[in-house]
């Protein structure tokens, strides 16, 4: 008691756990430089990071006017690295070593015991560190100098060694490598060379550096304080009595062994109910793979809101014939591969998406056709089909579940959004697999004969049957549209005399009707789109509009306002877009909107283009080459003319260049910018303009979306 009285508590400090920067906070150490000599006042030219590897590179300027700097040595190093001729790939554009690069290395992989602390107003705020990195100077430029030296030596010895090489002719033996076994593949995956290759595949993320005294840095430092420091919201360091007791007296290992252990891939319904709703849906779909919505609701329980389930199911599954099929990236995560062929997850997801898309078009799929298009092995294709279909002898693979017409009728907005998503997937599949229009009709059930061979009589008979089936439906649809047009355009008290049109007037009206058709949200007409997730194409687009347009109105129309807001926001980010890319982004935007949104009323190509021009954009008439493979929508290029920043004038000069040239070299762009602006622009300013509007390919610069791979 006496010791406790001699050592009284003089102050109590509240400790808060701040998590705003928990996944982004790094500690940088510079072990080759004393703490008194910081890099705070040295200009930072660039910064980039590989988040998964926690690898950082900083590029800092060197003070070349300092008396301690040896200028002749700096010029010699630049000459060794870049050679006599300077170009865009030169490390030192000023022909002087005026910068150095710092590369990071991890000091420890476990940073759970480290945190950054900030003491303010009697409170201690702790933020966990995401990584601790040591930065040292990188000498990669010496490797480049060695490579230049070897190239020069090889060029000098090339003439003398050429004659000897022609005389020294040896016979070679061609050998074919054996198929790689599973053990050999495991050894290859764990090898240093493979790991280095995987590390090199991760792209760099370029960052903006702000100094310690910058106002934006001060703003970011405020996140080191716990945002909910009132004591009520901050419960990270508060435990309930039972949790605190469990920490003081954990269960013994013998008690844990007595509990029955289920397999790792088995989850009981009781355990499932403890998970959040989104995780419950994901676990169920990952295990079942194909499920009607009614069955999913019965498994989740009667108390679950169907709207929340609809919102969650669209994140992990796609609609096929009214049923939900789990998405491919759920079954094949990013870093996984095929157990049969070793194919990466990206290729597997693309092949499985093709199978799912085929089932949106038909009840039947032939495995050989899928294998021929996707170029995947038979085992991988069989796995795809077994997820969602059942094999029928002499017929192919039939979709596992019957068509769910009840769900289609009950949730048309969800069906429309899924149709938009399938349109985007269809566009990617067309480009990857070079799909062409399927002109062969399907073979009637029970008909014998080799697959893929259809006689001329069978084609004619099939066409007649389809025409008879569609005639009555088309007549009713035409009559309904005529009535809607009369009701929308004619007042009850006014009678309009209908007179026959001349041939020229009729042709003109047909042309206007074709121009006012709804926007083709499918990226190409090359594929047959008779069904959109089980719906006829006319019904999938929605019938509440007139020729694809919403009910006519002025610019105050909610649809026009929403469309204009989307266009302005998109061009503020992209600056240059083709009509094809804009339609793709619009489809993705529609897929993320809630059911019943005004934009689902239908938007035509003409309405979209008029909105783009009204939003301050201009169409750039890029002179495509005569042999171009670009579609008409890809040849319509729009650009934001004025965004309100300092680079507007530079972008306008660049766009004028591309109105006369399909592709341009950088030196031409830079000289034209210098001529128009009256002063020479810095490399950073030119890079910004090119990054906003262009892409580089093969040493040439193209407007975004115009380069054809």
Automatic annotation (TrEMBL):
Keyword Secreted: no
Signal peptide region: none
Gene Ontology biological process: tRNA transcription by RNA polymerase III
Composition-biased stretches (Basic and acidic residues): 146-155
Domain of life assignment: Eukaryota
InterPro entries per record: RNA_pol_III_Rpc5, RPC5_C
Biased composition (Acidic residues): 501-519
GO cellular component: RNA polymerase III complex
Domain named DNA-directed RNA polymerase III subunit RPC5 C-terminal: residues: 442-709
Pfam families: RPC5 (PF04801), RPC5_C (PF19725)
Region (Disordered): 146-183, 497-526
Keyword set, alphabetical order: DNA-directed RNA polymerase, Transcription
Protein name from the UniProt record: DNA-directed RNA polymerase III subunit RPC5 isoform X2
Gene: Polr3e
